[in-house]
Amino acid sequence: MVFPTPSTALRHRFERRSRRLEVAREIRESLVSLAGMLGRPVRHRGGEVVGKVVDVVVRWDTDQPYPPVSGVVVKVGARRAFVAAEAVASVSQREVGLATARLDLRDFVAREGETALASEVLDHQLVDIDGARVVRAADLYLATVGDGVRLVGVDVGFGSLLRRLGPARWRTRPTPEAVIDWASVQSFGPGAGNGGARLARHRGELNTLRPAELADLLEDLGRRERQELLELVDPETAADALEEMDAGELRQLLAETGTARAARLLERMEPDEAADALRDLSQEDRTALLAALPQPAAARLHPVLGFPADSAGGAMTTILFTARPEDTVAGVRDRLAEHAEHVVDLDAITVVDADGRLADDISVGELLLADPQTPLSELIGPPWPVTVTAGADVREVADRLIDSRRLSVVVVDDDDRPLGRILADDVLDAVISGHRRWQRPRAR
Amino acid sequence: MTSPMTSEQDAARTPGAGLTPAPPPPLRHWWRRRWWRRALLALAFAGPGLIAANAGNDAGGIATYASAGAQFGYQTLFLMVLITVALVVVQEMCARLGAYTGQGLGALIREQFSLRVTAFALLAFLVANVGLVVSEFAGIAAALELVGVSKFISIPVAAAAIWALVVYGSYRYAERAFLILSLAFLAYPVAAFLARPNLAQAGSQLIWPHFTGSKAFLLLAVALIGTTITPYMQFYLAAAVADKGIGPADYGKERVDAVAGAIFADLISIFIIVATAAAIKTRAPLASAQQAAQALRPVAGRFASQLFALGLFGASALAAAVVPLSTAYALSEAVGAERSVGKSFREARLFLGLFTGQIVIGAAVALIPGNLIQLLVQAQVLNGIITPILLTYVLILANRRSLLGTAANGRVFRVISTVCVIAIAIMAAAVLGLTVAGWFGIG
């Protein structure tokens, strides 16, 4: 193997760097910075200045990843006129050239499916879907792609902010250091909100985010933006994300969401998480939400709500799968299959006797390995189920879990009737709290 | 009562199985066992308006009100009435902005103004708040000097301790302790009555418009404005209203809270002025915290200094962490680094840098030798000069129909609020002019 001498290594590195710089320069020259364009002159075909650029309007409602520019808002004297894209001959960093010699002074009115970039998108919150983070647009980049000028990227770099603070000469020079491809950006606000193919395209991607990522997005967004995001994702996905949210943020979100939608989300949350959220709300909001919940969901929540948050009763999920000793393994498996959506909350089934008392807790694994025709009564036996009473402290539950090496414990009442189940992850939630380190000091 | 898996049909298919009888919810039991927690919760539901307005009664506030009482007796009382009107107007606008937009002022200004105008507002906010942090550390030092600790020890130790408590995450507990300590200042209204103030004089000064033309009075007037209508409070209130999820539907109640909070906070301020005016008759600027503490003598007797020290320490330590935290949050939010706030050191560079920087600068300035009480007052003058700048932003935002729709300022309210802001701006400009002239030896 031949090691490159220091000088050749240096030369290689220099060549690589200059190549990269050239590419960067090409990109830089083809990009037009929106922030830099604002305030630049608009000339008609004769070369005379007719006004200044105030805003650039794009059309969302197409199935294309890069929205096309549909026109430019030009300030002529004291009026704001709209110039359609067909009348624009060239868009460059320094000026906008018109194809016509005359300017038709039509006042600018926002149209359905269109958004004015400078007033609605620049400096506003956006979601970078690939990076699963909330960003604020420091600059927007336009480029000539195919037949027209399109919005291609959003700059989130700190350098771009500084550039915009500086003199006009700096402002017109794009500094693409932290640019996100517009194809993976979800924007909010008028025009972006109401349906359209563009949204449908992102809807799929948003639904594939992990619940914790979606929760982070919801926490970081402003009120209007987060309501729009909630509208975009499936209620199931949203409910999973809500379970991951910080308690204070979740309280805020539920308080500002309409009762009907909030109830739809609560209905899909695990009962223990939903009860936690309800506990934090004001009496008034809680009553309204409980009343709006469909009967089965409200019934699941009531027993949990009756117990303090830090007791076993408050941390349990009331989603229990109960069976009788005479049921066969095959019959239980069939019933389990019908409730596949709750599979994450299930690690065992609860067997009760004729009086409703707990007979045994049979793990799903045991069920899987047993012969289909066996009645459950044959599976009953040691190891006996681990139980706690509803009033037990969460730390006691943790101790029981550690001792038994199980993944869940059954919560029973004084007569040994099962009330619910506590899964190890709920205990983790209760034991580890405050994972967000620096929060805005909240209203005490 | 039962899970979906044991719903009616399942139960019908496997008779007797599945239904787990649930006991009636023992809500009453829960209530009784947790009554103290419920009581704390009720305190927590004391609205953001009440909390924000009373944040004005921090170390700087106490020093400024006490200074006003000591130096001018009851003469500043009428001014306090005018300031209360302005505070009510301003608080109401901020609460309305928070409720109708669901955003803090930092994000709102970034979205509604051009970037340069935004940068100017945030810079002004940062300067005002660094001034506040200075005054909080001066307050800590003044409190501990009363019990014999040199400020060259207390300030560095307090700065390091507060920084570590916040960054390593056990600040929440310390916060509660500080809050309880600061309740010591509730002794002021009692002291105001026990000190047998000249009620006739206080009453007439409260009602009759009167102004004293001296430079010292003007300076103190701006300090009173600065500590009562602090820019920090405006940002806090809008963010807290948004954080609580208060929307247009609940705004009626929030308006009551904002207005009542402002009036209540200013009543306390007036009591502080009256108590000090009755207890200290030198009519000269306050020389020391020792002297300021004399106002509490009617309540605490010879323990007046200790009581004053406790309250001052609690209020200062509380704000010394909360002010830089909120400032760092508001600025990060406006820059667009929201996400970094909950993350690790490396990712939260901007946030952590802002927080640390404010504490370091605040502590360093407070260490400069000089009269701590006067330093506290001067920090409020700085706030008073900056207040009208940020009030202008609030006013423009609250006037904007494109932002608030029908909730934007009506014609009458617009006139009242504009007059308030202009009056404050004129006084601030006069003080700024006098100060600059002073640097060049004029006046």
Strands of chain B, total number: 0
Order of helix and strand elements from N to C terminus of chain B: HHHHHHHHHHHHHHHHHHHHHH
N- and C-termini, Cα separation of chain B? 80 Å
Shape of chain B: globular
Radius of gyration of chain A: 30 Å
Tags for this model:
heterodimer, A: 444 residues, alpha+beta, SH3 type barrels, MgtE N-terminal fold, CBS-domain, 3 domains, seven-stranded mixed beta sheet, four-stranded antiparallel beta sheet, 19 helices, disordered C terminus, B: 443 residues, mainly alpha, Sodium/glucose cotransporter, 22 helices, 75% helix, 0% strand, globular, disordered N terminus
Structural notes for this entry:
The complex is a heterodimer of chains A (444) and B (443). With 444 residues, chain A is of the alpha+beta class. Chain A is 40% helix and 21% strand. Chain A has 19 helices and 20 strands. In chain A, strands 2, 3, 4, 5, 6, 7 and 8 form a 7-stranded mixed β-sheet that branches. In chain A, helix 10 packs across helix 12 and helix 12 (271-280) crosses helix 14 (295-305). The radius of gyration of chain A is 30 Å and the shape is elongated. Chain B is an all-alpha fold. The interface between A and B is large, with 68 and 72 residues.
Outline the secondary-structure elements:
The complex is a heterodimer of chains A (444) and B (443).
Chain A lengths: L5 H25 L1 E2 H4 L3 E3 L5 E11 L9 E8 L2 E6 L3 E4 L4 E3 L15 E3 H4 L4 E4 L4 E4 L2 E7 L2 E8 L2 H8 L2 H4 L7 E3 L3 E2 L10 H11 L3 H10 L2 H10 L2 H10 L2 H10 L2 H10 L2 H10 L2 H10 L2 H11 L6 H4 L6 E2 L5 H10 L9 E5 L5 E6 H6 L17 E3 L4 H11 L3 E5 L5 E6 H8 L13
Parallel strand pairs in A: 2-7, 15-16, 18-19
Antiparallel strand pairs in A: 1-11, 2-3, 3-4, 3-8, 4-5, 6-7, 9-10, 9-14, 11-12, 12-13, 16-17, 19-20
Helix pairs in contact in A: 7-9, 9-11, 10-12, 11-13, 12-14, 18-19
Chain B lengths: L7 H6 L13 H7 L1 H10 L3 H7 L4 H14 L4 H25 L3 H8 L2 H32 L4 H17 L3 H12 L4 H8 L4 H9 L7 H14 L2 H13 L7 H29 L9 H5 L3 H4 L3 H32 L13 H18 L5 H28 L1 H4 L6 H29 L4
